[in-house]
Amino acid sequence: MIETLVLKKAIVRVPCAIIEHKGKVLAGQRSAELSFPLKWEFPGGKQEKNETDEETLIREIREELNAEILIVQKLPITSKDQGWREILLVPFVCKLRSTNILLTEHEQILWLAPEDLPSLDWTEADLGVIKSYYDYLASRK
Predict the structure, then answer these.
(1) Cβ–Cβ under 8 Å, residues 136 and 93
(2) End-to-end CA distance of the chain
(3) 69 pLDDT above the threshold of 70
(4) Rg of the chain (C-alpha set)
(5) Which helix (H) or strand (E) holds 71?
C-alpha cells in the first residue's frame, strides 16, 4: 500500500483599506523586516478567528495607523497563490474618520491621486486591488 501525504494549503484572509481623503488615496510602504520588504500595499491585515472582514479591517487600521475609518464599499476579492499558501485580499473603499495618523508598522505612507497609484512598487496581490479600485471609480461616473 502506498500512502500519500497531502499538505493542506494555508488560506490567509487579509482585509485591506483603500483609504480616500481629499481626492487622494493612502499607500503604505511595508517594513524592511516583513515579507515583501519595502513594497507598497493598502493597509490591513490577517483576519483572526471569529472576526468579520469589517471587524478585522477596523482593528488593523487602528493598530497600523492609529486611525478610525468609515467603510464605504467592499470590492471584489483578489487572490495570490504562493504555492504553500494563498493570500485572499479583501479590499474596502474607506474614508478617514480621524486624521492623526501614527505609523506603527509601515516605513512610510504616501497620499497619491488615484491615477498615480501605478507609479509605486506594489505587492503583486495589491496590483489586483488597484484594478478593482479603478473599476469601482469608473462605475461611479
Answers:
(1) yes
(2) 63
(3) yes
(4) 16
(5) strand 69-74
The grid cell for 27 is 499607500
Q: What is the chain's percent helix, strand, coil content, to nearest 5?
A: 25, 35, 40
Cβ neighbours for 139, distance < 8 A, ≥ 6 positions apart: none
What pLDDT does 94 receive? 98
Domain borders along the chain are 11-139
pTM score, two decimals? 0.90
Q: What fold characterizes domain 11-139? A: Nucleoside Triphosphate Pyrophosphohydrolase (3.90.79)
Mean per-residue pLDDT over the chain, rounded: 92
Question: CA torsion sign, 45 to 50 to 52 to 58?
Answer: negative
